[in-house]
Amino acid sequence: MNQKINSDWEERLAAVWASFDDYEGTREAEFRVVVDELVAELPDDSPVGPFERACAFDSTGHSDKAVPLYQEALARGLDGYRGRRTKIQLASSLRNIGRAEEGVALLTPELDAPSDELDDAVRATLALCLAGLGREREGLSLVLGALARHLPRYQRSMKNYARELIESADA
Q: In the structure, what pLDDT confidence band is assigned to residue 24 with cuts at 50, 70 and 90?
């Protein structure tokens, strides 16, 4: 039964993810089967299908199997909120399998993307990718910059320290 994504499907998907901890350990393959069953309800060319399957592999410790699925979701045109999540999660998975440079290339343009609630996740994941390449100062700068706006005080100081980390590395 192929259907379009609707609120019922989204609610059932959310319920599956809410129950993720119930599958921890020896039942992780069973969790992926449940996700696959939901994905099977989508049109065959849906970009959401490979994204959700990638998430299930990623969340159960299989970054290597998640990477091609995330790439497929993007190639099929996944955009918007799920598209940005895909880029973040793909970059993280790439880092996990030793391809951090690709993660940096994927996320760097996201620093200039329209702002949303995923901005800090972009910066945190990019920081991890940079650290994986021995560029810890750049990563720390990103994280401090992201943290600064959440602090009750010292925002300006933290932004300046973040900038100085990069400038002193360039000097």
A: confident
Q: Does residue 1 surpass a pLDDT of 60?
A: no
Q: Record the pTM.
A: 0.91
C-alpha 74/C-alpha 87 separation (Å) is 8
For 148, residues 6+ apart whose C-beta sits below 8 A from its C-beta are 154, 155, 156, 158, 159, 162
pLDDT class for 39, splitting at 50, 70, 90? very high
Distance CA 108, CA 106 (A): 6
- Judged by DSSP in three states, 21 sits in helix
Q: φ and ψ at 148, to 5 degrees?
A: -50, -45
Length of the chain: 171
Work out the end-to-end distance of the chain between its first and last CA atoms, rounded to an integer number of angstroms: 60
Please say whether the beta carbons of 70 and 90 come within 8 A. yes
**Of 168 and 157, more confident:** 157
Query: 7-134: which CATH architecture?
Result: Alpha Horseshoe (1.25)
DSSP 45: T
- Domain residue ranges in the chain: 7-134, 136-171
**Angular region, 98: left φ>0, alpha ψ -120 to 50, beta rest:** left
